[in-house]
Design brief:
5 helices; 103 residues
């Protein structure tokens, strides 16, 4: 076990969206932590877009992260545009970490 796995989950108050706060609190495995870091960066870029700023070359970074985590991208984009929390934390985690299996 690594030291990071022993740290209890907590809300990150610097996160802008409820989606990311809840996602970070649930990230306990190495894959989930890697996803959480990518989502944190995606949230920063989506926040700039929502405020009307242009991304320039960083738009390519946003596109590559969004391609990897499409459900999270949609949930954070809607929340940052004022549509409120979507309640997709668990669904996004299961789909994007490939924990969900269709029956």
């Amino acid at each position: 076990m690594t030291m990071q796995q022993n740290i209890p989950p907590k809300f990150d108050e610097t996160a802008q969206t409820e989606f990311l706060k809840r996602t970070l609190a649930r990230a306990m495995t190495e894959r989930a932590l890697k996803r959480a870091v990518a989502l944190k960066q995606m949230e920063v870029l989506l926040g700039r877009v929502a405020r009307g700023q242009t991304l320039g070359v960083q738009g390519f970074l946003l596109s590559s992260i969004a391609r990897e985590y499409p459900v999270s991208h949609r949930a954070m984009d809607l929340e940052l545009r004022g549509k409120g929390p979507q309640g997709l934390v668990e669904v996004a985690e299961q789909i994007e970490l490939k924990l969900w299996v269709a029956r």
